Structures are given as structure tokens and as C-alpha cells.
Amino acid sequence: MLPFLIIAFLVVNFLYFFMEMPVLAFGFTDWSNVIIAWGILFLFISALILLNKFRLFISKTAWGEVLKKLFPQLFQERPHVVDIANYQNQGQNYKRYRMLGLVGIILLVVGVSNLLILPILTSAPMLYSSSYRGLLGEVKESSFTSDIEPINLSQIRIVDEETARKLAEKIIGEVPALGSEVQIGELSLQKVREKLYYVAPLEHRGIFQWLTNYTRGSKGFVMVSATNPQDVHLVQSVNGKEVYLKYQMKGFFFDYLPRYVYFNGFFNIGISDFSFEIDDDLNPYWVVTLYKNKVGYHGSDAVGAVIVNAQTGEISRHTIEDLPRWIDRVQPESYVYKQVKDWGDYINGFWNSVFAKMGTLKPTGDELHLIYGNDDSVYWYTRITSSGKDGSSVGFILINSRTKEAKWYKVSGADEGGAKKSAEGQVQEKSYRAGYPILYNIGGVPTYIAPLKDKEGLLKAVSFISVENYNLVGVGADIEGGLRAYQQVLASKGNQFVPSQENKALKLQGKISRVSQVVKGGESYFYFMIEGDNRIFVGSSNTSPKIPLVKVGDLISVTANDTKENTLSITEFIGENY
């Protein structure tokens, strides 16, 4: 009976490690269950062996009756014969069993302490609120226009995650039988070859599909442009070689990515945030965050990353400082969000966060969003509001998604919810709904840009909303149209809401050298060039009724925002000779 129990116990322990993958390090509680189980086993074995010594005492109790039924062989009467030769050995064995019981007690104490007591003593926010607030690091107050360069129009995101998934599902459905074998995994926004894409692995749909393809894995991944809804790719081969994803989140046994990483030496550190990314050569990888708990048993904080080749399983470990350039993020959204929340909650200590809430701040929503700058940096973004009754927005915070460098911008104004309502209000007769607004620097003006979609989730228009005044909205059929409408709205207000004049108005006079008309979304736009200037100027009849009459050789004067781009939208047009 006893050998069977020990074997069963070992099997259960193996299954626990195989399924739960406990982190074997201080600051983690999941290994406590194993220690407690071993403690109980040692006590149980010790009690069974030593039971013969005091079985007469036990037999007189209710527990003795129960044990007699469970283990009758232990209560069998033995002949009263003293084995003098083995008497000394029996005494030594009893000492060993008592020691085994003592070890069991120690393991129980350690396991219970690690599970229940130490987390309270070392991690309670009431005792360590300053440590939690400090996890985000130094938060520097900075200038938006100096840190975030004006975005190139070609890099503005007009495809949100909902639309990207629908486009990905559409291209999967165009391949016969592919949809019955694979499903689209989690979409990851990333920059590939200087363009923004949503990238997602094609993963096994279930265990039967895995059994069919377990030697190679599922085939390929999808790429959906975040800036152009027509740019969608199903990638199943790269440079003539077929792409198979053997290690993935929908794998089984050791093809299951977290288990594969854990049993390849990463059992003593936390692993999290399994993000699918591709390099500029379109080779697929998994980027896995390594983390430690910095405030006792809580305060999870990224300390590095593991890069796993999704095809071969090759693993490389990196610190935050030596990550390859093509990796966009290693700071998990959930960790950064919690740290931002603690930074705002514990400004004046724990008790203030519970009762008075004087001066406390909080994120506007329950999630963060990635934004991309022209400087190749990637940031987690959220607006910050006061925790008082008014809940007014007091600014926003950007956290570098690789280094976790945090910067705080005191730019009050509309939050994302208000921006969405303003955008939808401009097209309420069409019942369009706005996607999540993303923050950009548009000519020095902090601006939300949100896609407008129909009931089917298809992109129909693009809206620009001023952060400082959400009544300033420009809507167009595409990015260029929306930007022109937005700039005209700003100009009509005399730029009084523009926080920075670093991008000054550009005034030019000259003769038209080339002109062309383009119709977009039912509206005519006129593209022209001025003699001696290589830039292209764009305007519509909304700018001036004289624009449709312009021809080569006409003398004109124009005003435009000098955004340093090659194509400039004009805010004023004067025909000097007509």
C-alpha cells in the first residue's frame, strides 16, 4: 500500500510541474503547494512507520478504529519475541523516522509561510506603498512637441484591431480548407520594414489538428497594414522556404510555448507576455518577457526577454539593454498599467489613496495603447485624470515599451471617450462609430486620430480631434481629407488652441508650374507646385473658391503649416492675377 501511495504522489507532483510550471524562486508562491505536499507526505510516512510503537495507544481511540480498517496489517498482533540482534538497528530507524517527521513539519511551516504569511509581511500596500509607487521609476515632466516628432501621414494608423482581425479572417477564408485547420492568434502591432502592421500567427484549431501537423506545426502567419486596409498578406513561405510554427500558444505537450520555455531552463524566473513578432526578414519569433517581483511577492517588473524561434525552437536570452532593434516591446501592458495606477494612487501615501484621495491620479481607462513616434520609439500611452468628483483630464503619460522610461505631459483636454463622441457627432446622420482614438503630433498640436466605421466594421472615414478642445474636429474620406478639414478648423480659430508655435505658418508667392485635380470621397482636391519649389501643395474649394480656377502660369499666394513634409495642406489661397 505504501509504495503505491509514494508512486502516485510522485506522479501527481510531475503532473503539477508539467501543467502549472511553478516558478522556483523567492517572491513566488506557486511552489508552496509542492513543499506543503512533500511535508504532508513525510509526516504521513513517519506516522505510519512509528505507528507500530504506539499502536496500542492509538487502538483505544476513534482514530485507531479508522486506521485499523484502512491499514489492518499494522494492527495485527505480533508474537512477544524480542530480537536482541536488531534492537539497536530498530532504535536507529525510529530516530530516522522521527527526523523524517521533523523535516515534514519544517516543510509545512515553510510552505504555509511562503503561501500566506510572507506575502502579507513583505508585500502589503499599507506597508510598502512608496515601493509600489517607485516601480515606474522617475517620471519626468516633458514637452509634447519636443519629444514626439510630427508624424508622417503614411504612418498614421487608420486600421484598428477589430478591423484588422476581420481583414485577416477574410484572407484566411479565401484559401480552401485552411480555416478548418488553423485559427488566427493574438494580433501584435509592430513596425516591419518601417511600416506598421498587425501580425498574428496561424495556430492549431484544436488537438486533432495538432496531432495531424505536430511534426512541423501550423503553416504561416498573417500581416495586416495598420495604415492601409488594402495591404493584407497571408505569409506561408519566405524566400522560397515554407513557414511552419511548431512552437505556439495552441500547441500541446512540449509544443506549448510556455511549457517549452519553462523546461528549457527558465523555471526560476517569471515568464509572461508571449508576443508574436517578426523581424525585417519576415522570420517568425516569440518574444517572452522575463520578470521578477520587486515588492516582496508582488510588483511584477520586466528584467529581460527570451526570444524563441517559432520554427526551430532556438532560444536566446537578452537583458533590457541588449534587445535586438526589431523588437518593439518587452514591457507587458498589464505590468505597466498597474505601475501607472500605483504611481497615481500613492502620491500621498496609502491611507490617502483609501480615504481623502487628495492629489491622486488615475488612468482614464482600464488598458494602455501603443503609439509609434517618428524616432522609431514605441510607447505605452494613457490619459491621466484626477480621482476627484470632477474626474477632469490633467494630461497623459508615455512609457517606452522597451526601456520603461516614463514621461508626463500636462496637457489638459478631452479623454478618449469624449474624442470618440465628438468624431461620431460629425457623422451622426451616417451612424458611423469611432474606433479607439490614437494620439499623434499633428503640426505641433496634440491630436487624436480615430477611424470611423460602419455597422459592418468597414473603414469609411478618418477623424482628427484636438486633444485640448474636442469641439475642433476634422473628418475626411481618407487621411489627407481629414487632415485638411482639421487644419481648416484650426485656422478658423486663429490657432488659439494650438499649444505650440514651433511649426510656423509658411507663406509663399509664385507662379503655378503644375496642377492636377483628384476626386476622393466625392470631394475634389487640387494638387499644385510652385516654380522653384519641389514641394506639393494641396487644397480644395473649401479653402478658397478660386482654387478650382487655377491654371499653370497663374501668380498665387498661399499659406500652409510648415510641417517639414514634402506634401503640405494649405490653409489660405489667394489668386493674385485673377
From TrEMBL:
Bilayer-crossing regions: 35-51, 99-121
Keywords: Membrane, Transmembrane, Transmembrane helix
Name this protein carries in UniProt: Uncharacterized protein
Organism expressing this protein natively: Pelosinus fermentans B4
Lineage top rank: taxon: Bacteria
Keyword Transmembrane helix among record annotations: yes
